[in-house]
């Protein structure tokens, strides 16, 4: 079987990490407001923890790459503003 380049542990991505975190938050909301099954909340915690780890790995991987950091910073700032995430806006500005 061919290896995939989409493995977050091999190729961490800030964007994928944020998307995964949103998925974890959705699972948490389902577990809190819709389902009484505790597995929803535990799955949400696992998903969100993995997403945070991926975002940290992506940040560490991109440090020291000035051209890439500036470009990524601009994109992250714009996306953060669009979705209302102050953390993304701050990170984006910091990278520039």
Biggest pleated sheet:
none
Mean of pLDDT: 82
Instruction: Output the number of helix runs.
Output: 4
- Backbone shape: elongated
The tally of strands reads 0
Tell me roughly what share of residues is in helical segments. Answer: over 70%
Helix-strand sequence: HHHH
User: Whole-Å distance between the termini?
Assistant: 40 Å
Strand content: under 5%
The class by helix and strand makeup works out as: mainly alpha
Give Rg in angstroms. 15 Å
* Low-pLDDT sequence parts: 1-5
Question: Describe it for me?
Answer:
This protein has helices at 14-33, 38-62, 66-83, 86-95. The protein is built from 4 helices and no strands. With 96 residues, it is mainly alpha-helical. The radius of gyration is 15 Å and the shape is elongated. The longest helix has 25 residues, at 38-62. 76% of the residues lie in helices and 0% in strands.
